[in-house]
Amino acid sequence: MKLLQRRIVDISLLDHEPTGLNRSPPMQLLKTGAFLRAARSARLSIPNRRAPPATTYTPSRWSSSQVATEEHHPFPEQSVNASREVDPAKTAEFKNDGVQKSDTNTISYKQQATIAGTPYIVDQTTNVTSSILGLVGRNLYDHPDHPICITRKLIESCFPHPEYNHFTMSDPVVTVKDNFDVLGFPADHPGRSRTDTYYVNSTHLLRTHTSAHQHAAFQTLATEKRTSGYTICADVYRRDSIDRSHFPVFHQMEGARVWGLPPNAESRYHAQTIRTAKMAKQLDALPKTSIEVEDNATSFSRDTNPMQSEHDPVELQLVVSHLKRSLEYLMEQIHKASQESLDPSARQASGPLKVRWVEAYFPFTSPSFELEVLWNGEWLELLGCGVVQQPILNNAGLKYSIGWAWGLGIERFAMLLFGIPDIRLFWSDDRRFLRQFSRGKVTKFEPFSKFPPCYKDIAFWINPSPGVASPIGAEAPSTSGVAAAAGGDATKASPSETQPAAFHENDIMEVVRDIAGSLAEDVKLVDEFVHPTSGRKSLCYRINYRSLERTLTNEEVNGLHDEVARRMASQFGVELR
Ligand code: FA5
Ligand code: MG
């Protein structure tokens, strides 16, 4: 019963404007050669297609500064079972005027959703809401004066053309297959759960990471002889906590680099010898850095972080060194840009950059690593990376290649670069925020004012069955330890739909987000209590309402809070206390 309630999309919840979320300003005119390429890339990133026939999925087009025409379509067509709406009459009303607007995304219970101009059948798996769809198509990474775009350009400059092609992917809808299956995610990985991921329907979802495009991007590398690497930038979506560093949409960049075997060698052995020598030379040619790096992930232990059996140990070491050195160079460039924006006394006070490598786990790389930076006295995770699982390269037509891949959160880098303290600010169209930034420049963010917070608590009993799923101190399910990639937190509650938790923390997050939008600054569990005789559990969450742009009235906050309570009771059957 509970499960059914969760699965149903309530039309009254879906058909209202998102609160407090704003649209971005129009694209600026771009002038220089690089910017003209970027403009072309922006144009190409907009799909200009009719609804595809019933069972054919047309993958989104690359927008690339290196893809000259829209006819050049580097992705081979894939055929998967897709639930796309097929009524061509319906497609006539979809806007396709060259600019994706968030009001082109709609969802209507029991009928269809339209996302980035493409219609989808809605089914029992659907859990996207109109407040989330209101954020689709903003393409902040394409607005040259926006900090997300400035950060993206800076990162791309560390992975230069022609070695690397740079792509953006504007359509966020991907198949479950591309987001999870082809990357080797186990069936019970928490990232797959409807509590953690926004499903459009049972076959399509809002991508949870840019790795969803890895397979297709490797396929382009297999055919493009001039380049050996790429970066991909895109918006990604996760049902997650609410606080200053989490927003349901954020931006990721993915990078990869492969080395193929040279053709025409006398033998495979000879080809590999030539390749190994080339790799060593390229490693040597990477720019030297002088940052302080602590490396806690140097051995590839069979138990915790194994190398793949297909790989030659010498080549593996070269790939790992090339990966780490490339990313350390990126860190140094980010740090330099950030330092240059400070006045000399602030620069001195900020101290040296400290980064460290730690072991990690991703289903699609092995060995795997994370890069962390010491920030405000704590280690902050910036990116995940590793040596690409060989079957992924093999399946993409890169059979004898070896390579690395990384994925990073642009907001995390942008917060470091510009000193932006709250992730919601990236979505603001307040001129006091936007006018502080301009293309090609890193400037420190000047807070324009701090408006007062307003805390409200909500306490409720949750149903005890089927097992005590507690957001605090929950017993980690069997997938514990594989929660690192693409969202999904195994410590929060049951990850599996076959064992639905009585209550999942992300459910209250979603309700608050849907009602209060970016007026909710954070939501925290502040009390947990089990009734001594009935065994029922009570939870108390504290919601901090605060606008970044104005002072909220008591009346307004009470209205929002009452609606949160009403929705929690009606949608999740909790008993309010
Ligand atoms: C991934 O998403 C992997 N796809 C990364 C990857 C790619 C690994 C290629 C190996 C090879 P993860 O879920 O850890 O991993 O996210 C990657 C980065 O995105 C994090 O290091 C962090 O910088 C950023 N990130 C993750 N969650 C959030 C969030 N809620 N808000 C802002 N940034 C986030
Ligand atoms: Mg991670």
UniProtKB/TrEMBL annotation:
The UniProt record lists the keyword Zinc: no
Domain Aminoacyl-transfer RNA synthetases class-II family profile: 234-447
One example GO MF annotation: ATP binding
Region annotation Disordered: where it falls in the sequence: 47-88, 480-499
Annotated Polar residues bias: 55-68
Function: Is responsible for the charging of tRNA(Phe) with phenylalanine in mitochondrial translation.
Name under which the protein is recorded: Phenylalanine--tRNA ligase, mitochondrial
Species this chain originates from: Exophiala xenobiotica
